[in-house]
Amino acid sequence: MRKAIVCVDDEAILLMGMKAVLEWAFGERFIYRTVCNALEVSGLLEGLQEKGIEIALLVTDLNMPDMRGDVLLEKIWEQNFRIPAIVVTGEADLYQTKLLVKKGIVKAVIKKPWKNMDFISTLRLFLEE
Fold it and tell me: Would you say 31 and 53 are in contact if contact means Cβ atoms under 8 Å apart?
């Protein structure tokens, strides 16, 4: 079964960078999908599942204009998508995100700006479980 990594961020340049780093680190092992609008994520996840593609990991920004990342992850969880998630953020206050970690929805938090090798190392922990 093919597996995908989905990245969500309202900043297109960050998404392009994330995708490039993922492709460099993991090559053709995964399908990579990026979304600039958090409101489109559910449709993307449903489409991937309909094609028989397992979502291995969802990486999302926390602070986005259309929907916060923590709200997005709760909605995805409510829709019975049990996808490991990692939050990337430049925010200092992570109260809501820490609650999602306690619930098991969020696996890790990566602070922006990150070093590519730290980003990859964190993702590897959850992709190789």
Answer: yes
